[in-house]
Amino acid sequence: MMDRQLSSGMASWEAESGMAARCGGVECVLLSCFDHNGLFLASMLGQGGIRLHRAHTAEMADFLLLATRGTVLVLDTTFLDGSWEDALAMIAQVHPLVATLICADLVDREFIASARERGAFDVLFRPIELDRLRTSIRTAHEATVERRLWLAEREHECRSNQHSVLGFHMETVK
Question: What's the pTM value of the predicted model, to 2 decimals?
Answer without folding.
Answer: 0.75
